[in-house]
């Protein structure tokens, strides 16, 4: 069995047929999906109903799993597996929607900022796999942008300027921007800020990446004002329409993307309507920027 991939845009996205994701994947199928990810950056799989355990099994086929924001312990889990992120606005019993003051709503809104999952930690995220359970009647799409195409389109002078710069990423930066600052000192310090090069090389394709994100709050060696202005300019450049794909969710869609080469953001929806998605994410344990100690801990 082999997969077929149909390109969705010039730069990013492919729609995949020829695989059932609720079944264990063969080594050849994993290789084929990895190859497609290296080319397209993100993949859409339609009509893929998955139980929570099947989604975890799928994710583990591609590497160890990331806990991400779960480390902050800001709310109780309602899902069966702690490695699954609950990207929903539903109550614990899934019979209704939560109040607008609930932490879940802040999370939904923060996800509407362009970001790369877990860029606020080392190692960061490799693949994210988002499964749609229930979707609103309108709104709630997810947009993706290709950071490789964005880098290629930079003027040479700007490529030279940022070639050796590093940006500081912090887990709560985007939350603070939204006025969500009700965290203990312990929670603020659970995941300390990390530095990532602003120009990275994507290992699967060998292409350079403009690595910016809503989690980036400063540029090492620059004043806060100068650094943040440059970060905003670069993020605006990276998310231009020509680099983007917009996904309109259907129940049982599974979308998989490479956080090393793309950014994504959710779009607004009526918070009185149910939107229930689940995400599993793998760790980028082989990132070339990791130290030997970091790599050893990641593999442990």
Characterise the protein shown here.
It contains nine helices and 15 strands. It has a seven-stranded mixed beta sheet with strand order 1-2-3-13-5-15-4, with helices on both faces. A three-stranded antiparallel beta sheet has the order 12-6-14. Strand 9 (199-201) and strand 10 (208-210) form a beta hairpin. It has 300 residues and is an alpha+beta fold. The protein has helices at residues 27-40, 52-60, 103-110, 147-152, 156-162, 173-177, 185-190, 224-238, 292-299; strands at residues 4-7, 14-17, 42-45, 85-88, 125-134, 142-146, 166-169, 194-197, 199-201, 208-210, 216-219, 244-247, 254-258, 262-266, 276-283. The radius of gyration is 18 Å and the shape is globular. Helices cover 26% and strands 24% of the residues. It has one domain (4-299): Double-stranded beta-helix.
């Amino acid at each position: 069995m082999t997969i077929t991939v149909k390109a969705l845009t010039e730069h990013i996205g492919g729609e995949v047929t020829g695989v059932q994701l609720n079944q264990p994947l063969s080594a050849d199928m994993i290789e084929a999906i990895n190859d497609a990810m290296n080319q397209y950056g993100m993949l859409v799989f339609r009509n893929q109903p998955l139980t929570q355990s099947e989604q975890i099994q799928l994710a583990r086929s591609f590497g160890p799993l990331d806990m991400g924001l779960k480390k902050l312990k800001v709310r109780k889990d309602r899902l069966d597996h702690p490695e699954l992120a609950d990207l929903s606005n539903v109550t614990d019993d899934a019979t209704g929607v939560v109040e607008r003051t609930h932490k879940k709503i802040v999370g939904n809104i923060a996800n509407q900022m362009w970001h790369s999952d877990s860029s606020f930690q080392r190692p960061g995220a490799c693949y994210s796999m988002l499964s749609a359970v229930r979707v609103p009647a309108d709104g709630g799409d997810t947009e993706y942008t290709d950071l490789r195409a964005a880098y290629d389109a930079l003027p040479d002078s700007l490529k030279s300027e940022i070639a050796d710069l590093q940006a500081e990423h912090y887990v709560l930066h985007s939350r603070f921007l939204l006025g969500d600052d009700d965290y203990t000192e312990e929670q603020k310090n659970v995941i300390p800020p990390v530095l990532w090069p602003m120009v990275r090389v994507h290992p699967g394709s060998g292409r350079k990446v403009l690595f910016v994100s809503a989690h980036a709050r400063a540029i090492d060696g620059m004043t806060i004002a100068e650094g943040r202005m440059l970060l905003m300019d670069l993020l605006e450049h990276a998310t231009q329409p020509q680099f983007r794909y917009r996904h309109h969710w259907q129940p049982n869609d599974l979308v998989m993307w490479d956080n090393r080469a793309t950014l994504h953001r959710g779009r607004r929806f009526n918070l009185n309507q149910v939107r229930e998605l689940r995400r599993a994410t793998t760790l980028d344990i082989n990132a070339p920027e990791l130290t030997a100690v970091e790599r050893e801990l990641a593999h442990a």
